[in-house]
């Protein structure tokens, strides 16, 4: 689960990391009020940043500076409602503009192959790290944290030296270890600060001082661990989620949209993966991963059908049910009910074995648009053939 920059900064702040103050505005008037507060506090300019869960906001015109409240209101008005990579901007972050001396990149990510937390750093920040890695692989520093002891002090210092933060060694160590703590405490997959910047500020005596600050933040949380952090679920931004994903979560259905044209409805994650593999082997392309679970009832089956047919590219549906906890007749009734409610009819191939499979066959027999199969291989072949018939020109 991706969270917005402002929420990511809140998690960093909870670990005591140096994050400058900000405000979130959903209207241009709110942005003006926030700008007035920061400008009255001594800021020469404020930055207004679109809050969307995609990169490239600056290039798209979603990050701008303003030196007066009226200008901030005008800029916020132009950014709110803007389309950035298919996402509509519904809120902006307002903060005092920083006097940046230098920017670096620092992030930690879950390295599943190594089964460790991997730190990535670059002496050049404020850029897309993927592009930098492609252009100059040697510019990226990699370091694995200890699997049991975490990021050790000497490792944090090594990162600071490699990023050229020698003059801010203590703060750099604090930030690196804070990123690791943020990751562990929130079961995150990614914690990124880009840029981590040396900024120039005025000290209490009026002289210029340089400090290390987290000017931007990106955090991705592990959806499977959200039950351990009830408060984090509230950070989910439903405005930017696919309505299909929202419905799948509400129904308790594991659903991932893919790029094929054969919709798959299966009970059990392992069986679902095997079904998709067989579709590929038969020359077809799965349109989704969908696991309705072990005890799926008719209403859940109908909901799963809606999720599949929400994808206009689906030309055929393959249903593969092993009746263990789930009863075959209950699934069959759900399929017939869902079929009667569909606004768009596509060919459906059903294979149900196990508990009450005979009853399921009786229910499905004679249902228009539903073919049955006794084996998975037969079902896959029929589904692939059906998708090809639908694809062929009339």
Q: What does this 3D model show about the protein?
A:
The structure is a single chain. The chain has helices spanning 5-14, 28-40, 69-79, 129-135, 153-162, 169-186, 243-251, 269-281, 298-309, 328-341, 357-364, 376-391, and strands at residues 2-3, 23-25, 46-50, 63-66, 83-84, 87-88, 92-96, 100-111, 116-122, 140-144, 188-202, 208-214, 218-221, 254-257, 262-266, 288-291, 316-323, 348-354, 370-372. By secondary structure, it is α+β, with helices and mostly antiparallel strands. The chain has three domains: 1-20 and 99-241, D-amino Acid Aminotransferase, Chain A, domain 1 (2-Layer Sandwich); 21-97, ATP-grasp fold, A domain (Dna Ligase, domain 1); 242-391, Rossmann fold, CATH 3.40.50.261. Strands 1, 8, 9, 10, 11, 12 and 13 form a seven-stranded antiparallel β-sheet that branches. The longest helix is centred in the middle third of the chain and has 18 residues, at 169-186. The protein is elongated, with a radius of gyration of 26 Å. It starts with a strand and ends with a helix.
Strand elements, count: 19
The overall average pLDDT, rounded, is: 91
Assembly level: single chain
- CATH topology value of the largest domain: D-amino Acid Aminotransferase, Chain A, domain 1
Tell me what the CATH architecture of the largest domain is.
Answer: 2-Layer Sandwich
Q: With helices defined by DSSP (H or I, 4 residues minimum), what is the helix count? A: 12
């Amino acid at each position: 689960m991706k969270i917005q920059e402002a929420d990511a900064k809140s998690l960093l702040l909870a670990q005591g990391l140096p994050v400058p103050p900000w405000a979130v505005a959903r209207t241009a008037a709110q942005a003006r009020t926030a700008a007035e507060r920061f400008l009255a506090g001594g800021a020469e300019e404020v930055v207004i940043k679109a809050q969307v869960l995609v990169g490239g906001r600056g290039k798209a015109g979603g990050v701008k500076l303003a030196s007066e409240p009226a200008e901030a209101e005008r800029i916020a008005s132009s950014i709110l409602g803007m389309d950035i990579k298919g996402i509509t901007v519904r809120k902006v972050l307002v903060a005092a503009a920083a006097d940046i001396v230098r920017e670096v990149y620092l992030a930690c990510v879950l390295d599943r192959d190594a089964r460790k937390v991997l730190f990535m750093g670059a002496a050049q920040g404020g850029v897309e790290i993927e592009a930098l890695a492609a252009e100059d692989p040697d510019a990226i520093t990699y370091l694995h944290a200890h699997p049991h002891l975490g990021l050790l002090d000497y490792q944090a210092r090594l990162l600071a030296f490699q990023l050229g933060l020698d003059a801010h060694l203590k703060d750099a160590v604090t930030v690196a270890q804070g990123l690791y703590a943020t990751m562990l405490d929130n079961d995150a997959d990614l914690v990124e600060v880009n840029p981590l910047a040396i900024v120039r500020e005025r000290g209490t005596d009026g002289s210029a001082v340089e400090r290390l600050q987290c000017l931007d933040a990106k955090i991705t949380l592990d959806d499977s661990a959200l039950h351990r952090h009830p408060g984090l679920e509230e950070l989910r931004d439903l405005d930017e989620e696919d309505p299909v994903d929202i419905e799948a979560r509400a129904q308790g259905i594991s659903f991932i949209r893919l790029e094929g044209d054969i919709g798959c409805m299966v009970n059990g994650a392992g069986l679902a993966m095997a079904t998709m593999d067989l579709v590929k082997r038969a020359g077809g392309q799965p349109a989704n991963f969908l696991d309705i679970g072990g005890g799926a009832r008719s209403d859940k089956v109908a909901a799963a059908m809606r999720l599949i047919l929400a994808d206009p590219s689906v030309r055929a549906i393959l249903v593969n049910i092993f009746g263990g906890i789930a009863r075959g007749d209950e699934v069959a009734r759900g399929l017939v009910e869902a079929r009667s409610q569909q606004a768009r009819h596509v060919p459906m191939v059903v294979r149900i074995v196990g508990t009450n499979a005979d009853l399921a066959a009786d229910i499905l027999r004679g249902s228009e648009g539903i073919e049955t199969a006794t084996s998975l291989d037969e079902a896959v072949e029929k589904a692939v053939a059906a998708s090809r018939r639908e694809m062929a020109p009339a």
